[in-house]
Amino acid sequence: MTAPLLQVRGLTTHFDFGRSVIKAVDGVSFDLAPGRTLGVVGESGSGKSVLARSIIGLLPQSRALRTGGEAIFDGRDLRTLPEAEMRRVRGRQIAMIFQDPLTSLNPVLTVGRQIVQVLRQHTDLSVSAAKDRAVELLAEVGIPDPKRRAEEYAHRMSGGMRQRVVIAIALACEPRLLIADEPTTALDVTVQAQVLDLLRRLQDDRDMAMIMITHDLGVVAESCDDVAVMYAGQVVETAPVAEVLAAPRMRYTEALLQAIPRMEGPSHVRLPVIPGAPPDLMRPPSGCRFAPRCAHRLDRCAAEEPPRAAAGPRHAFACWNPAPPPVERPLETLADDRA
Amino acid sequence: MTAPDRRRPFPETAPATAAEAPAAEADALLEVDALTQTFAASGGGRVQALSGVSFALRRGETLGVVGESGSGKSTLARAVMSLPPPESGAVRFDGEDLTALSPGRLRRRRSAFQMVFQDPVSSLNPAHRVHDIVEMPLRVAGVRDPAERLRRVAEAMAAVGLSHDDFARRRPYELSGGQCQRVSIARALVSRPELLICDEAVSALDVSVQAQVLNLLEDAKAAFSLTMMFISHDLGVVRGISDRVMVMYLGKVCEIAPTDALYAAPRHPYTSMLLDSVPSLTASRRAPRKARVRGETPSPLDVPSGCRFRTRCPAATDLCAAQTPPLSPTGEAGRSVACHHPLAGRLDSDGTARTPPRRVTA
């Protein structure tokens, strides 16, 4: 396996308000290799967006902010880079796209101008060369009649076209890592399919690594190699996607998969339910944070935090009473069809 | 004054056996006929949000309505509720045309058809307590006896899994999104409606909470003998809860069919494209794939002539541009499709696997 492009170790982002501390991200670790996609999946409040912003250094400037751990990108720890240095990494080496394409774009500049701005900021292209490149980029993301569209404003475009523009801006400087935070959540399902196809194609062309943050396990299955499942600020399971979908070990992952309404099978089937709601991050439960909602909890679950256990070469989970491993089909064969 | 108590006893009624009987117009609770709704657009044009939509809803049935933004599914829900009344067409509820009722009469009839909205927080008055929110429809319906109102509020709250003792005095901001949606459902159930319209009722909820609310809706449907119209963009959710599914595109019905038949073998090319677009849990990042979606939804201000889907349809012919395909029965039980060239099964990327034109028209 190739050396990782990004190594995250014990990443912690807390907001300390004196009387209470919000543990938004609490000890997250993972590796990401060039050209691969890691899905970060979780429900609202699981900390997945804060994790992304922690890596790229886009957290709100606040005296309450307490950070820890490392995010080593290409040999340098992003957490300790001076802001001036970080600004050169951001946009050039690491780009990010957000859920809402309309608020990500400047309403008073044409989309072409916005791409030119990014190119002029990070490269030494001349204005006219940058303009040509902007039109090329719009063509690459599948915008018809790119020369004319470059002169338009974002509000004149559909949601799908706007997200294509956002992707064009993000990819303008050929970043080595793209962080996509719910990039298709605001889009219709047919538009989502187009944008996911586009991201996959662009990524393969450029051997770019990607972190895809989403609440939708279907999106993970379609666009990711590996997945990190987050619950209450922690990563509770990491694995190759096919492996986790076929044989989740951590009980939260298992319950989450069962709660998804399926496209196949009979109607009017009672969905297995996860009781209760995700915990308040100011007062996370002791021990395993999922324990109060878990149907398989043991006495020790509430008392002790479960350690990370390895279930395969790229599969780890944290659970005292995990789902049994699959017996009939060894994990190796599950991992094979991903290669 | 309506006394809702006359209609049916409270939850103790036997659960409705949904969707057993084949389509029988005589048993229709709701008949929607040629519903059309247009809105003025900024710039002077008019958007035809609904164009000649007709369907019938049997008692005890759950009809799923799917479509993308601009398909008119929410406008349809509101037109059925007369919020606002449709521009033309009829909405017959229990044989009575709601569009012809006086405002006062309509208001009194409202307790029989209730709606649950998408945003669980903003659809509740933040200043009111849960008890008052759930009680409001009873006051509107003129239930004068405070003891009776209290009993029914407690029952409705119990039906959605909220204990009156614990929740009655709380306000919406003290509740989670899932709890707020339970309050919305209790408010809809308290007047003992016959028809419940859910407009994206679980779309704002997380997966784990969504499953709870879906199960609760199924329970409420049985306990209150409800007929349901379930509007959602989520095809997995609709599949689970619906007896029949209606697919909409740009203000028109493309296809309506029993759920299993629709998902197994869509007949309208748009239904097929929609189903192919849903991210599948069995997909793989590295597997080769065909392009599933062609083009973009046209502007509702400037809809294509003839079949509105023809600009994106791999099977489109000149006929599709010239004539609007009527929604007509396919011969399969309970299924109608509006297409000149309906599919035999799932559509391939090149538009193969389709049947020859059903009608040969000049």
Give a written overview of the molecule:
The complex is a heterodimer of chains A (339) and B (362). Chain A is α/β, with parallel strands linked by helices and 339 residues long. Chain A has 13 helices and twelve strands. In chain A, the strands form two sheets. In chain A, strands 6-7-8-3-9-10-12-11 form an eight-stranded mixed beta sheet, sandwiched between helices. Chain A has a four-stranded antiparallel beta sheet with strand order 2-1-4-5, with helices on one face. In chain A, helix 4 packs across helix 5 (127-140), helix 5 (127-140) packs across helix 7 (159-171) and helix 7 packs parallel to helix 8 (189-206). The longest helix of chain A is centred in the middle third of the chain and has 18 residues, at 189-206. The model of chain A is unreliable at 334-339 (pLDDT under 50). Chain B contains eleven helices and twelve strands. Chain B is globular, with a radius of gyration of 21 Å. The model of chain B is unreliable at 1-24 and 346-362 (pLDDT under 50). With 362 residues, chain B is of the alpha/beta class. In chain B, strand 1 (28-40) and strand 2 form a beta hairpin. Chain B has helices spanning 73-80, 103-109, 130-141, 146-159, 164-167, 177-189, 207-223, 235-241, 259-264, 269-277, 318-322, and strands at 28-40, 46-58, 62-66, 88-93, 96-97, 113-116, 195-199, 227-231, 244-249, 252-258, 328-329, 336-337. Chain B has an eight-stranded mixed beta sheet, with helices on both faces. In chain B, strands 2-1-4-5 form a four-stranded antiparallel beta sheet, covered by helices on one side. Chain B starts with 27 loop residues before the first strand and ends in a 25-residue tail after the last strand. Chains A and B meet through helix 7, helix 8, helix 9, helix 10 and helix 11 of A and helix 7, helix 8, helix 9 and helix 10 of B.
